[in-house]
Design goal:
single chain, 53 residues, alpha+beta, three-stranded antiparallel beta sheet, 1 helix, 3 strands
Length: 53
Amino acid sequence: MVITVKKNDMRTYYEISSEVTGKVLLRRRKIAKALRIWLSENGVSYKYIFFAN
């Protein structure tokens, strides 16, 4: 079995989880950054990971 990967097939996902928002999976880096800033400013603790799929 041969799998070909095109250049645009690899996508980065940003996962942010907190008690306020639950688990959020985002594609846009700027939106993920804005959410992290908002959570920090409001004193909410969160976990943040990103991965390519």
